[in-house]
Amino acid sequence: MLSFLSSQFLLYVSIGIALFIPGYFLIFATHLNKKLSSLESLVVAFGSSVVIIDFLIIFLGRSPFSITRVSVFAVIFLFSIVCYAVHFFRNKKNTGATLVEIEAVKPSNELPLKSTLLILLLIFLTIFIKTIYFKDTIFPTTTDLGHHMYWTKIITTTANLPVYEKADIGQDLTIEKPRPIADFVIGEHLIFAAIALLSGAEFIGPFPALVLFLIQIMSLLAIFILTRSLFSLPDNKASRYGEVVALMALFLIGPLYALATPQAKFVSGGVIGNTIGNLLIPLAIFFFVRAFSEKKSVFLSWGLLISLGLAYTHHLSTFVFIFVFLFTIIAFVALNFKTITVEMRGWIKLFTSPSVLTVLALGIIFVFLIYTPTYLNSKAIDTAVGAPSKSTRTGLTLTQLKMTAGEARFAFAVAGFFLLFFARKISRYSQAFMIGWISSLALMSLRPDWLFVDIPSNRIASYVVFPFAIVAACMIVHSFVLLKDKTDNMRKNYLGPAFVLITFVSFMVFVSVNGFDDNAHALNTDSSASKAIQTYTASRYLAQHSNSQDMILKDHNYLSGDTWIKLFFMRGYSYPLSRGYFKRYEDSASREQCTNLMISTPSSSNAGQCFAGTKTNFIMINPKIDSGQFDKLKKFWQIYSSDEVGIYYKSS
Amino acid sequence: MNNKIIPITILGMLLISFVFLSIVEIKQADINSKNIWVLYFSDPQSGSLDFSIENHSQNKIFHWQILLDKIIVTEGDSVIMLGDTKTITVPTSNTDLSNKKITISVTDSNSNKKEVYKNF
Questions:
Q1: How, if at all, do strands A636-641 and B51-56 pair?
Q2: Which residue of chain A has the CA closest to B43?
Q3: How far is CA A71 from the centre of its chain?
């Protein structure tokens, strides 16, 4: 009990130190706290801490110091001290400010009581529904999370930045020298490494999923603050239109569709990059919209900092964000063609401000001199850009996109998208960002060939959920505003208030039923913990009874939690070898076949050559499926037996 | 309205959820609640036939047999409590094992059987 309490205490303190403190201090250093509400400060502090921790640990990894508990704590402490010093001296410099000036920068965007209670209710429902789902998935078993936690553990055990590489089986059937891989991005692992180092938390435990859960809740709040900012009327700060749309958006992405992709399923599945991307993309847009709308360079600096953090965290999210930005520029130019030259002068002024130039300079120094993200090489870029190379990359049908976005959300989003072109209760930049965000993702998902995008279409489509929810919320609220508006607008409305009210209630019932039905379908009835525990117990046994001279082959098809096996050995990313999904051996003729042959037909001569070439001498399989072929062969000994795992040793 | 109540309440709700999920995870990670047991050779790579039974089930009595090419050469019962592991030493010095298959067969009180073997 005492050890549970102390481990819990250490975990939450570590999360606080790593994921809130650096961001809060940077907010104070840049005086952003005077321009943000407390909820905005919370979300910005969290999102920026994710970015800051990445840069601090990369810097640490490139310095003569090692990445240890002490050095990570020290670097966070030093960063916070520097930020506080900047805050202190800037405050001291500004002590001559008049009372009027101080009043002018006080936040005016705090929420009233009713909205506060409504937000808390929506967040409570969201956390409750997701918690119910996670209680069956909290034990770590999922494939992606296993891979990611291997690299995270590498950071904590070597005290250095990881070298992303893997060793494949070559043409001569031997295991080649490790080669660099672009599948992983360092930002996906550094925050977990920092928390693991500070807290001492076990990797095979709840902490990775809990951190992802926290990131997801913060991303929902990021959508809330972004929506509120997007739909706050530039000429009427007192209007609550933006607040109501933001609450509706929170309803559409919080308790509704709470479990489907990219929500709880991405957390339990360990889809780290997408989950962090879904936090940083709305945050970056939040800052860019405010920077251009309010002509404030401090917001642009923050937007660029968050974007830079995104580039160090997830390649696909960065790729998507670049398209969103390009489409936004096109939309803005098309909608504001007459005033574009005046606007551009304002942009130049913003981009040449000292704070923006500082962030840009730091970004360039980091990318070119300190650490270049692994995916920034020609091979990785070639695989993402070009004509779609596989059937899964040729685009989704409209029905598939509808199912991904959620049927009800999709319906309102389509209507809301067209409404955006005629919207008056929205700034020009908000309008351009929303049109750019939705049109870029819709095109990338439906017609990737038009944009030369060669990425699995369903992965891109998972990003449509957030902008679709925002626009759907705008559409629903707008129809309600028509009902409530008793001024001139109402007289232009040909529909009776009773009819509009009934229609609105029907909309809400449709949305709620569809969203909660989606939740019901996603709920798990079974936990895979029991099977995975047997895999981990067998792995522990094998780790104790083998060394790096031995080669192990395990099966990905029928063993639960198999990607976590490598955490017991820490003998390389490709150790143990793995029999992948059968379809992959058929899809690619150039793919090595050894890992399949050595389990499926161990008596064949080809398998014999594979055993000789790879020096494989231990096989981990599910005995209910794959024991028969080994039991017949004299050279194999069954050395381990449990209900879900059998281990065979190939005697020499 | 002082909106610090929103961040504080949200973090409080998350904390409660996290503690609950951590407790759930600890229960799920407890192998002794899974009603399983495991059989393995103590030294998988050598000719040693010493084997271990790791008990995480409600069974306490395990009947084991050592078979030399399907013929039972010795057998016995072991009492193993929940969470315990028992290693049984098998002397091999007086037996010619060449070209033989030695199977260790263990059955629990519910007649569930597991086997491991070595071919010499």
A1: unpaired
A2: A545
A3: 27
Q: Kindly report the nearest CA distance between residue B11 and chain A, in angstroms.
A: 9
Kindly compute the dihedral angle of the four CA atoms of residues A444, A446, A452, A458, in this order, to the nearest 10 degrees: 70
Closest CA to A154 of A478, A573, A638, A600: A573
* Structural domain spans, chain B: 1-31, 34-119
Lowest mean pLDDT among A445-454, A482-491, B33-42, B99-108: A482-491
Residue A236: pLDDT band with limits 50, 70, 90: low
Q: What percent of chain A has pLDDT over 90?
A: 59
pLDDT tens per residue across span A103-149: 444 445 677 888 899 999 999 999 999 999 998 889 999 999 999 99
Cβ-in-10-Å burial (0-12, 13-18, 19+) of A250 comes to buried
Q: How many residues are recorded in chain B? A: 120
Å from B82 to nearest chain A CA?
A: 16
CB count in 10 Å sphere of residue A626: 21
Q: Tell me if A53 sits within 8 A of A190, measured CB to CB.
A: yes
The question of ipTM being above 0.90 is answered as yes
Chain B nearest C-alpha distance from A160 (Å): 29
Which chain B residue is nearest to residue A139, measuring alpha carbons? B25
Residue A549 — very low, low, confident or very high, per pLDDT cuts 50/70/90?
Answer: very high
Cβ-defined contact of A205 to B37 (cutoff 8 Å):
no
Return phi, psi of residue A458, to 5°: -70, -30
B64, pLDDT greater than 50: yes
Backbone angles phi, psi at B113, to 5 degrees: -115, 140
* Residue of B39, B43, B45 to mutate for A, most A C-beta atoms under 10 A: B45
Smallest Cβ–Cβ distance between A637 and the set B14, B23, B119 belongs to B119
| Dist CA A22 CA A119 (whole Å) | 26
What number is the average pLDDT over the span A49-56? 96
- Contacts B115 to A, Cβ<8 Å: 638, 641
Q: Which CATH number fits domain B34-119: 3.90.950.10, 3.20.20.70, 2.60.40.10, 3.30.70.330?
A: 2.60.40.10
Whole-angstrom distance, CA of residue A419 vs CA of residue A226: 19
| Higher-scoring residue by pLDDT: A398, A146 | A146
Angle at A352 between CA A229 and CA A107, to 5 degrees: 30
| Contacts with B34 from chain A: Cβ below 8 Å | 530, 533-534
- pTM for this model (two decimals): 0.92
Residues with Cβ within 8 Å of A529's Cβ and at least 6 positions away in sequence, in order, are A139, A141, B28, B29
